[in-house]
From TrEMBL:
Residues 1-20 form the signal peptide. It comes from Tieghemostelium lacteum. Residues 417-521 form the DUF7743 domain. Keywords: Membrane, Signal, Transmembrane, Transmembrane helix. Residues 648-781 form the DUF7035 domain. The chain crosses the membrane at residues 1288-1311. Residues 1053-1258 form the ComC supersandwich domain. Residues 794-914 form the DUF7034 domain. This is EGF-like domain-containing protein. The lineage of its organism: Eukaryota, Amoebozoa, Evosea, Eumycetozoa, Dictyostelia.
Length: 1330
C-alpha cells in the first residue's frame, strides 16, 4: 500500500499544471422506469464513469440522490454508482461534481429518463416453494407477478440472510423474478423464512415460507481431516505466487448434506465449498479463501452449526516491499501521430511480466519486449507507444506484476484538437445466414478520431477492430458488419460496446438505444411475442444419470406453440457449477427440429464423475433466455436431471515429490550429461493423469525452455502414481545463473487442471500445494565453467524494411531484414545462436509480434529476417516498429525502440499506402458434404451492391468457372447453393471488377450405413430386438436370445457363514482368491473361511452383506460380497452399464480393498464354484458355445438346465478398478458332471476393485441345440420317466447382451457379424446331418 500512496501523490502534484475539471466519460442506466405511489420512481441505479485526476468528493443533482457508491477508482477514471429518485414523466439528470481540490463541474447525462406509473400493490403469487441449492449456497424461490411487462427492480431482506448485509436479492428471468437468499450459517435452519420485499418508496410486502432445509439435514457430520495450502497460521504475501489465496480441503467420513461453508469472524458472507473428490459417503470439499481474514469452517444441520476447525492467516496488504521503479516520461509529436516514451532503469528481474498502460490499453507484453540492458539482476526498460494526434491528458505507468511500479501523469498537446465525445449508433439491422447465425449491420459515426473497436458483450465477447469489419464509408461515418449467433448472444443485458481511437467509449443496452427506440429484433415477427407460456412441453430423456465412468449422452425435448423450425433453441451449461474445470469446452448445444413429432431435440453430453447434484443449465430460445429454476417451477421434475457418481473427481493431479536434477546446485564442470531438470511423482485418482507442460527459465535469460509430456513419458509407476523425469540441455553455459520452474500445468483425463503460478482469480489449484518445504527443489543454482566476463552490449548494424504497405490487399506479407554484432570488450562472447531477436509492430491499440529467422553470419555479423501477414487494415493509422532481445552468449541484451531506430536513421514507422481499392477476401467457409447444398462464405469487402457482385465456381480441376448468384448476400458473409461433388470445388468472387483470392473446398464424404445385425441373434427369438450391444429383451423375456422367462417363486437359501446360495439343486459359492503372475502361475492363494453377515430386508430386495479380511496380505485387504435377492423389477447400474434385475434374480457384487501385489504385472483371481447338490442319474456336463469361440475359454453366460428350468449365471466382462472402468477375464477353470469352477481375473489396482456376476432361474421355451460337447458325452435319455438330462452349459459370447454397453466400430462389427453368421450356418448344417 505504501507505494500506491506515493505514486498517487505524484499524480496529484503533476496535475496542478494541467486542467483538472471533471468530465463525463460514459454512463450506463435504464431510461424507461416504473414506480407506484405518489413519489415516482425511486432508488434508480446509474453507473457513471468520470475522468478527473483528483478524487471526487461530492455529488449533488437536480433530483434527490440518496446513495453515491464508489465502485472503482483507477485515476483519472472513477467509477461511481448513484441511487436517484425521479418524478413521473420525463427527466434529465444534471449533476454538480466536486473534486478534492474544490473544483466544481456541471455534468448533464445525455439521455433523459421516463418514469411510468404502475398500479400498487403488484399482483404476484408464489410460483414455486423455496429450495435450497447447495451448488449456489443459497435459497431460491420463483414469483409470478402476472404482469405483461418487465417489472421494476425491487429489493428484499430476510430473517435468515447474512447477518451484516441481510443478503437477499431479486433476480430477473422474464416476468419471473427470483428471490435469492445467501443464508447466515447460524440462522439457515430456522423453521420459517420471512422475506420483506420493498420498492424503495416505503411500500413493503411480507412473504413467509416454510424452510425446507431442516428436514434435509438430520445427522451430525464427522470430519476426517481439515488441511489447507498454505499451511494453517502461515504468513501470506502478495508477492509470492504460492500464497495469493488459501485452498482449504475438508474430508468427511459421514455427511448427510452437500452444504459446507467457511465463514469469517470478520466478513459476513460465507465461502461455499464444493465437492471435488471422493465417494458419496466420504466426500472431499474444497474452498478458496481470501488470506486477509481468519475463517471458521462450519456445517449446518437441523440442530446447530457445527464448527469443524479454524484456519488463521496473516498477510501483507498492497504491494510487497520492493524498490519502486525509477523512470521518466516524454513525448514526440509527428505530423499525423503522437509518440509517448516511457523509460525505467530499475526493473528487478524478468520473472514477472511487465504491464505498460496508456489510457485504456494495458498489454501484458512478453520478454524480451522493452528490456534494453541488464546489470546483475537489475534491468533497464524503455517503451514507445503510438497515440492519435489529438490532445490528451492522462497517466502512464510501468508495473511489474506483483512487484513495483512507476506512474506519471502526462499531457500531449498534439495538433491542439480535443476529442471527448464517444461514437454514436444510428441504426442496427440483421441479415439472417442460417438458423442461428446473423450478420449485425451497424451504422456508427464518430466526430473526430474515428471508431477503433466494436463488439457485443455478455455472456461471450465478440470484439472487433473497427477497420476489419468496416464495409462502407470510413471510421468517422461508416457501416460495419459483425457475425453473431442467437445461440448465445441474444440474452438479457447484452451490450453493444464501441470505442473511438481517442479512447471514448459508448454502449447500447439491448433492446434500447440512445434515442429510447427499440432496437430491431434479429428474429422474424412471429417470434417477437413468443413467451414462456408458448412452451407446451419440456422434458429430458433421462432424469437420473450415472456419470461414474464416462460422459453420458442425454436429450432435451421441447414442444412449443406455432414452432418455427428455423429458430432453434440452444442448451448452455451453467459454467459456474459443475463444469467450471472444462474451460476449453463451451458446452453449447443447438437443437434440431423433428417434423414427425413436432419437438425440438437437443442432444448433449454430460461430463463424467460429477458428484451427486442437479444439472444446472439455461436454454436460449430466441428471444427468450430461460433459466433452470423457472423451467423447474413450470415443468417440475421433467425439467430436472439429477447426476450422481460412485466417485466424484473435479480435482486436478498433484505432485507428491520433487527432486532437482542433478541437485539444487549444478556445477557445469562436473555434470556428465549437461542437463538440468526435475524428477517428480504425479498422483491422480480416479481420473488418472493425462498430460502436462513445464516451462523453465533463468534469472538472466527470459528465453524459456519447455517440455510437453504425457502419461506415456513416465519412467516408472502407472497413470495413477507415476514418476516423470523432465530434463533440458544447458545450451548456454557461459554465465552462472539460477534456473527455476516458471510455469507448470498438469491435466487429468477429465480435464481437471492444476497450474503454477496460480493466477489472480481464485479457483486455480497450485500444482505444488502438497510439497510443503520441498518447494525449495523448484530452483537450481547453475555454476558456469567460464571464468571470463563480457561487459559489451550487442548492437544493431543494419535494418531494412519497406515503409509503405497495403494492409487492405489479399497479399499482406510484411518483411524485415537486419544484422547484429557483439560489441568490443575485453572478452567477446559473440551473438547467441539461441536467442533470435523479436520485431514488434504497434498500432493505436494493437500489438503484432514478428519472430525472426537466423540467415547466416560472417565476420561476427549475424543476419536475420522476419515475415508476418499483417492483420487486415492494421496500417491504416500507422505502425511503430521496434526490435528487441538482441542477445550475446553472456546473456547481455539490447533493444531498440522506434525512437532509437529514428535516431540511427532507420525506418521507425510503417504507413498505409494511400488511395487503394480493397479487393474481396474469402477468409473462411462452412462445411459441405458430397451431396452439395448450402455453402456459406465469410470474409471482407464482398461489396454492398449485389448487381456488381458475382461468384465464380468450378467443380473439376480442368473445367471452366461458371458464374452463380448468392442466395443471401452481405459484405462479410453470403450463402450460395453448391451442386453435388466428391471432387474439390474452386471458388472466387468479383465485386465491381476487383477479384478475390481463390479458395479450394473439399466436400466431406458421407460414411457408410451401419449394417443390420438381426441375423446374429436369430431375431432375438421374436421376444426383443437386436442392437449393437446384443439382444434387448421385451417384457419378462430374458437370456442371451430372449428365449427364457424368469421364475420368480424360487426356493433360494443362503449359508450364514459364507456367501453361498442354493438355487434349483445348485450351490453357488466363492471358493478362494488367488494372486497370479503374468504367466498365470499362482503366487499366493487366500482360502476364505470366516465371513461376517449383515442381512437387510428392503422394499425391492433382500440384501446379504458378507465381509472378511485377507489377514495374510500385508495390507489386510477387506473383501466385501454384497448379494441382492430381488423381489421387484430393478434397474441396476454397474461399470457404466444398466441391467434389469427381475424378481428372483441373485446378484453378487464383490469388492476388494487395497491389496499388496508382489508385482504390478500380477492380477487377482476370484474363484467361484457352481456345484450340483444331487445330480440326476441321467445328468452329464456339457460345454456349449452358441455364439462364437473366445480365446482361452473366456465365458459370459453359464447355464444349468433341468428339464425346461435353467439357472443362468451371467459373468460380466466389465469391472470397476480404482474407480475407473476395467475388464474382467472370466475363465473356465474346471468342469465335471457335478461341478464347474470359474476364475474371474482382475488386473493390478491401487485402491479398489469391484466385479458383479448375477444368477437367475429361468423357464426355457426352446430345446438345447447347436451344442458343442466338451465334457462327458451322454446319450439322450428317452426313458419313460420323461426326465431329460441335467446340463451345465458354458456359453461364450463375443457381443455382450441384455444391455451391456460395449461400443463396436463399423469395421470390426462387420467382420464379426460375418463370422457369426457363418458359424451359425455351420452349426445348423452340422445339426441337420445328425
Amino acid at each position: 500500500m505504501k507505494y500506491i500512496y506515493i505514486s498517487f501523490i505524484l499524480l496529484i502534484i503533476l496535475c496542478t499544471d494541467i486542467q483538472c475539471n471533471t468530465t463525463l466519460r460514459s454512463s450506463q442506466y435504464e431510461t424507461d422506469l416504473y414506480g407506484y405511489g405518489s413519489s415516482g420512481c425511486g432508488e434508480i441505479q446509474t453507473l457513471i464513469v468520470f475522468q478527473d485526476p483528483y478524487e471526487i468528493t461530492d455529488i449533488s443533482g437536480n433530483f434527490p440522490t440518496s446513495i453515491v457508491t464508489t465502485v472503482r477508482v483507477d485515476l483519472p477514471n472513477q467509477f461511481l454508482s448513484l441511487s436517484t429518485n425521479y418524478p413521473y414523466g420525463n427527466s434529465t439528470l444534471v449533476l454538480e461534481v466536486t473534486n478534492s481540490h474544490n473544483q466544481t463541474s456541471e455534468i448533464t447525462l445525455p439521455t433523459p429518463f421516463r418514469c411510468h406509473y404502475l398500479p400498487h400493490p403488484l399482483p404476484y403469487k408464489l410460483k414455486s416453494s423455496f429450495l435450497f441449492d447447495p451448488g449456489y449456497g443459497r435459497f431460491m424461490a420463483n414469483l409470478d407477478w402476472d404482469l405483461p411487462y418487465r417489472i421494476p427492480k425491487l429489493t428484499c431482506s430476510s430473517n435468515i440472510g447474512v447477518a451484516v448485509t441481510n443478503n437477499c436479492e431479486i433476480g430477473y428471468s422474464l416476468t419471473l423474478p427470483q428471490i435469492n437468499i445467501i443464508p447466515d450459517m447460524l440462522k439457515m435452519v430456522l423453521p420459517n423464512i420471512e422475506v420483506l420485499v420493498s420498492d424503495g418508496l416505503n411500500n413493503f410486502t411480507s412473504l413467509v415460507f416454510d424452510n425446507p432445509l431442516p428436514t434435509q439435514l438430520q445427522e451430525t457430520p464427522l470430519v476426517s481431516s481439515l488441511i489447507s495450502f498454505p499451511a494453517n497460521n502461515s504468513k501470506l504475501s502478495n508477492g509470492d505466487e504460492d500464497y495469493l489465496y488459501v485452498m482449504a480441503l475438508a474430508q468427511f467420513s459421514q455427511i448427510n448434506s452437500s452444504f459446507v461453508s467457511f465463514i469469517s469472524n470478520v466478513v459476513a458472507s460465507p465461502e461455499t465449498a464444493k465437492v471435488v473428490l471422493g465417494e458419496p459417503e466420504a466426500p472431499l470439499y474444497q474452498a478458496f479463501l481470501s488470506p486477509y481474514y481468519p475463517r471458521h469452517m462450519l456445517y449446518a444441520n437441523n440442530k446447530e452449526a457445527i464448527s469443524l476447525g479454524t484456519l488463521n492467516y496473516s498477510s501483507n496488504s498492497g504491494y510487497v516491499n520492493y524498490p519502486s521503479i525509477i523512470g521518466s516520461k516524454s513525448s514526440v509529436f509527428e505530423t499525423d501521430m503522437s509518440i509517448i516514451i516511457l523509460e525505467s532503469n530499475n526493473i528487478n528481474d524478468i520473472k514477472y511480466p511487465v504491464v505498460v498502460s496508456f489510457k485504456s490499453f494495458n498489454p501484458q507484453v512478453p520478454f524480451p519486449f522493452g528490456y534494453k540492458t541488464n546489470t546483475n539482476t537489475t534491468w533497464s526498460y524503455k517503451y514507445n507507444w503510438i497515440l492519435p494526434p489529438y490532445t490528451f491528458s492522462g497517466y502512464a505507468y510501468i508495473q511489474q506484476q506483483l512487484r513495483n511500479w512507476y506512474m506519471s501523469a502526462y499531457t500531449i498537446t498534439g495538433n491542439g484538437i480535443t476529442d471527448s465525445q464517444p461514437p454514436q449508433v444510428h441504426s442496427i439491422e440483421y441479415i439472417k445466414l442460417d438458423n442461428n447465425n446473423f450478420i449485425a449491420r451497424l451504422a456508427i459515426t464518430d466526430d473526430i478520431s474515428g471508431l477503433d473497436n466494436v463488439g457485443f458483450f455478455n455472456p461471450l465477447t465478440s470484439n472487433y477492430k473497427a477497420i476489419e469489419v468496416l464495409v462502407d464509408g470510413d471510421l468517422n461515418n461508416g457501416t460495419y458488419e459483425i457475425l453473431i449467433s442467437t445461440g448465445y448472444m441474444f440474452m438479457e443485458n447484452v451490450i453493444l460496446m464501441f470505442t473511438d481511437i481517442a479512447g471514448n467509449s459508448g454502449f447500447v443496452n439491448n433492446p434500447i438505444d440512445f434515442d429510447l427506440t427499440p432496437l430491431p429484433s434479429p428474429l422474424s415477427s412471429n417470434t417477437s411475442s413468443f413467451t414462456m407460456d408458448d412452451i407446451l412441453d419440456f422434458y429430458f430423456e433421462r432424469n437420473r444419470v450415472d456419470t461414474s465412468f464416462k460422459g453420458v449422452t442425454n436429450t432435451l425435448y421441447i414442444k412449443v406453440r406455432n414452432p418455427d423450425p428455423q429458430v432453434l433453441p440452444v442448451l448452455v451449461f451453467d459454467k459456474g457449477l459443475l463444469f467450471i474445470q472444462h474451460v476449453d469446452n463451451p458446452d453449447i448445444y443447438t437443437a434440431t427440429y423433428n417434423n414427425a413429432t413436432g419437438y425440438f431435440e437437443i442432444v448433449f453430453t454430460l461430463h463424467q464423475r460429477v458428484y451427486e447434484s442437479v444439472f444446472k443449465y439455461v436454454v436460449v430460445f430466441p428471444p427468450l433466455y430461460l433459466e433452470f429454476n423457472p423451467l423447474r417451477a413450470k415443468f417440475g421434475e421433467k425439467a430436472v436431471v439429477r447426476l450422481y457418481a460412485n466417485n466424484a473427481d473435479a480435482f486436478p493431479p498433484q505432485i507428491n515429490n520433487l527432486t532437482a536434477i542433478p541437485s539444487t546446485v549444478a556445477d557445469y564442470a562436473s555434470m556428465s550429461d549437461k542437463v538440468i531438470g526435475w524428477e517428480m511423482e504425479i498422483w491422480d485418482l480416479p481420473a488418472t493423469f493425462s498430460s502436462g507442460y513445464i516451462e523453465i527459465a533463468s534469472n538472466y535469460d527470459g528465453l524459456t525452455m519447455s517440455r510437453n509430456f504425457t502419461v506415456d513419458d513416465r519412467v516408472d509407476g502407472d497413470a495413477v502414481k507415476g514418476i516423470y523425469r523432465l530434463t533440458v540441455s544447458v545450451e548456454n553455459s557461459q554465465r552462472s545463473q539460477t534456473f527455476y520452474i516458471k510455469t507448470m500445468k498438469l491435466i487429468d483425463t477429465l480435464g481437471n487442471t492444476c497450474v503454477f503460478p496460480i493466477g489472480q482469480l481464485i479457483d486455480d489449484v497450485n500444482c505444488f500445494w502438497n510439497l510443503g518445504s520441498n518447494r525449495t527443489q523448484r530452483s537450481i543454482e547453475f555454476i558456469s565453467a567460464n571464468q571470463q566476463s563480457d561487459s559489451g552490449i550487442p548492437e544493431l548494424v543494419d535494418f531494412q524494411v519497406e515503409p509503405i504497405v497495403n494492409s487492405f490487399s489479399n497479399e499482406r506479407q510484411f518483411v524485415v531484414s537486419f544484422s547484429t554484432q557483439d560489441s568490443n570488450s575485453t572478452y567477446i562472447s559473440d551473438i547467441s545462436p539461441l536467442h533470435n531477436p523479436v520485431v514488434i509492430l504497434q498500432g493505436y491499440s494493437s500489438f503484432i509480434t514478428m519472430n525472426t529467422n537466423f540467415i547466416n553470419s560472417s565476420n561476427g555479423v549475424y543476419h536475420y529476417n522476419a515475415t508476418v501477414e499483417l492483420p487486415y487494415g492494421s496500417a491504416y493509422n500507422g505502425l511503430l516498429i521496434s526490435i528487441h532481445g538482441i542477445t550475446d552468449n553472456y546473456l547481455n541484451i539490447n533493444s531498440y525502440t522506434s525512437m532509437d531506430l529514428k535516431a540511427l536513421g532507420f525506418t521507425y514507422v510503417i504507413k498505409q499506402q494511400p488511395n487503394v481499392t480493397a479487393n474481396p477476401i474469402i477468409e473462411n467457409w462452412s462445411d459441405i458434404n458430397e451431396k452439395g447444398g448450402e455453402l456459406r462464405l465469410f470474409g471482407k469487402k464482398f461489396g454492398t451492391q449485389i448487381e456488381k457482385f458475382q461468384i465464380f465456381i468450378k467443380y473439376t480441376e480442368n473445367g471452366p468457372f461458371a458464374s452463380v448468384q448468392p442466395v443471401i448476400y452481405s459484405s462479410s458473409a453470403l450463402t450460395m447453393n453448391v451442386n453435388p461433388s466428391k471432387s474439390p470445388i474452386s471458388i472466387y468472387l468479383n465485386y465491381n471488377g476487383q477479384e478475390s483470392n481463390t479458395v479450394i473446398i473439399q466436400p466431406k464424404l458421407i460414411p457408410p450405413v451401419m449394417p443390420d445385425c438381426q441375423l446374429l441373434f436369430n431375431g432375438c427369438s421374436g421376444n426383443g430386438y437386436c442392437s449393437l450391444t446384443g439382444c434387448v429383451c421385451s417384457g419378462t423375456w430374458f437370456g442371451p436370445n430372449c428365449s427364457s422367462t424368469i421364475i420368480s417363486n424360487n426356493n433360494i437359501t443362503n449359508d450364514p457363514t459364507n456367501p453361498s446360495f442354493n438355487l434349483i439343486s445348485a450351490l453357488i459359492s466363492i471358493q478362494s482368491i488367488k494372486e497370479l503372475n503374468f504367466k498365470g502361475e499362482i503366487q499366493n492363494q487366500h482360502d476364505i473361511k470366516q465371513w461376517l453377515l449383515i442381512k437387510d430386508v428392503q422394499s425391492d430386495r433382500t440384501r446379504y452383506t458378507y465381509t472378511t479380511i485377507l489377514s495374510d496380505n500385508v495390507l489386510a485387504t477387506q473383501v466385501k460380497t454384497q448379494v441382492d435377492l430381488f423381489s421387484k423389477d430393478v434397474d441396476i447400474s454397474f461399470a457404466d452399464n444398466t441391467y434389469l434385475m427381475k424378481p428372483g434374480t441373485l446378484k453378487y457384487t464383490i469388492s476388494l480393498g487395497p491389496y499388496q501385489f508382489q508385482s504390478q504385472l500380477n492380477s487377482l483371481q476370484v474363484v467361484m464354484s457352481i456345484q450340483l447338490n444331487e445330480p440326476d442319474q441321467n445328468s452329464c456336463t456339457q460345454t456349449q458355445n452358441n455364439y462364437g469361440l473366445v480365446d482361452g475359454n473366456q465365458i459370459e453366460w453359464l447355464q444349468l438346465r433341468i428339464n425346461d428350468t435353467s439357472l443362468y449365471g451371467k459373468f460380466i466382462q466389465n469391472s470397476v478398478v480404482d474407480y475407473r472402468l476395467g475388464t474382467v477375464n472370466n475363465y473356465l477353470l474346471s468342469n465335471s458332471s457335478t461341478n464347474v469352477t470359474i476364475g474371474m481375473n482382475l488386473p493390478f489396482y491401487h485402491v479398489m476393485a469391484m466385479l458383479d456376476p448375477d444368477f437367475s432361474v429361468l423357464l426355457d421355451t426352446e430345446p438345447i441345440q447347436n451344442g458343442t460337447i466338451i465334457g462327458n458325452d451322454c446319450e439322450e435319455n428317452q426313458s419313460s420317466k420323461g426326465l431329460s438330462r441335467n446340463k451345465i452349459i458354458i456359453i461364450s459370447t463375443i457381443c455382450s447382451v441384455v444391455g451391456a454397453a460395449i461400443i463396436i466400430s463399423v469395421i470390426i462389427y462387420v467382420i464379426k457379424l460375418k463370422k457369426e453368421i457363418l458359424f451359425q450356418k455351420l452349426l445348423k448344417a452340422s445339426s441337420n446331418t445328425k
